[in-house]
Automatic annotation (TrEMBL):
Residues 28-359 form the Ionotropic glutamate receptor C-terminal domain. This is Possible ligand gated channel (GIC family). It is a multi-pass membrane protein. Residues 28-359 form the Solute-binding protein family 3/N-terminal domain. It holds the Pfam family SBP_bac_3. Its main location: membrane. One of its GO terms (molecular function) is ligand-gated monoatomic ion channel activity. It is found in: Membrane. InterPro entries: Ionotropic_Glu_rcpt (IPR015683), Iontro_rcpt_C (IPR001320), K_chnl_dom (IPR013099), Solute-binding_3/MltF_N (IPR001638). It comes from the Bacteria. The keyword Secreted does not apply. Gene3D superfamilies: 1.10.287.70, Periplasmic binding protein-like II.
């Protein structure tokens, strides 16, 4: 009987343990949220975005109760974790050496990889920008070479034809040379009016060689001018920031509490911190800053949803960023989140969330 009572008591105790919720499930987690679309966005009072959706998948899988607490920027969100005010920080939180070394917090494994880019003004080329290539070294040298070649061919044709064909190429040098250059020009352009034509063998030989040379000359000159125009116009499309070294000394807009502040300084730029990306972009449009540094997915998402031909992404990237969630040191959440993130990655659910929101 004693054995039966012991077994019954153990069974009851086991049921009580199984029915008792874990500490994480017993209370609603305080989750800080901060960042910009497409990672964090609030529509009609409901938070959504890549970071929010990934967290919801984790919370649903582990049956975690939680409520979201908004923070104005990433740094304040991280600080709230370190100060014990919240249990978790979510958003596009870059994992940086300085943040990892901070006491009181830990990062989960990354769930998103992004690059840091620069949004700059796009300046449509004016009239001078369009005709400027005509006065460049490439164009002027090509035109000079062409005129010199026409002069030489005109002289050779006149010398060969002046005696036996004075009607088309008069013996007088100026008039005869003019007709010779005219013949060379209409041959070059394949117009062939027929008002001037060589009759001598020497003249026809010179004309034949010139016809062959003309084909190659026109192609070469056309390609050179097209290349000069393309390069010139492509350079006028962007502001002075064409490569990372161009950031040196420039005033660059950044969002307060993001890695853009330190990244701007690392390239020699002068950061101009503002609370939101919208305000930073407003500074570009008012010509107050030379560009805005932020994560490329955030800038691309803005460009997609707010088409603006006056702005464009600079043709370079500054650095690679990895995003993770932030938890207090020694928090049981870290291991739990890491396991779920691995499951989401292996099942391609994180990619599916990202593709759905970004595309």
């Amino acid at each position: 009987m004693g054995g039966m009572n012991l077994k019954r008591r153990l069974s009851v105790a086991a049921l009580i343990v199984m029915a008792t919720p874990s500490p994480l499930q017993a209370m609603a987690l305080r989750v800080g949220v901060s960042g910009s679309p497409p990672f964090v966005d609030k529509k009609a009072g409901v938070y959504e975005g890549i970071s929010v959706e990934v967290w919801r998948q984790i919370a649903h899988a582990e049956k975690l109760e939680y409520f979201l607490i908004p923070y104005p920027n990433i740094d304040s969100n991280i600080k709230a974790v370190a100060d014990g005010k919240i249990d978790l920080a979510i958003g596009p939180i870059s994992i940086t050496p300085d943040r990892v070394a901070r006491n009181g917090i830990e990062f989960t494994q990354p769930y998103f990889y992004a690059e840091e880019g620069v949004l700059v003004p796009s300046q449509p080329p004016g009239l001078w920008a369009r005709i400027k290539p005509l006065f460049g070294v490439a164009a002027l040298s090509s035109i000079t070479f062409l005129l010199f070649t026409l002069f030489c061919v005109g002289n050779l044709i006149w010398l060969a034809e002046r005696k036996r064909n004075p009607e088309h190429f008069p013996p007088q040098y100026i008039k005869g040379l003019g007709n010779g250059i005219w013949f060379a020009l209409v041959t070059l352009t394949t117009v062939g009016y027929g008002d001037r034509a060589p009759l001598t063998k020497a003249g026809r030989s010179i004309a034949g060689v010139w016809m062959v040379i003309s084909l190659a000359s026109v192609s070469t000159i056309t390609a050179g001018l097209a290349s000069a125009f393309t390069v010139s116009l492509s350079q006028t499309q962007l502001s002075g920031v064409m490569k990372p070294s161009d950031l040196d000394g420039e005033l660059i807009g950044v969002v307060t509490g993001t890695t853009g502040v330190s990244l701007a300084r690392s390239y020699g730029a002068r950061p101009f911190p503002v609370p939101t990306l919208k305000e930073a972009i407003h500074l570009i449009k008012r010509n107050k800053v030379s560009g805005v540094i932020s994560d490329t997915p955030i800038l691309s998402y803005y460009m997609k949803n707010s088409p603006d031909k006056s702005l464009t992404l600079a043709p370079f990237r500054l650095s690679l960023q990895t995003y993770g969630f932030v938890v207090p040191s020694d928090s049981p959440l870290e291991r739990l989140i890491n396991i779920e993130l691995l499951r989401l990655e292996r099942s391609h659910q994180v990619k599916a969330i990202s593709d759905r929101i970004l595309k």
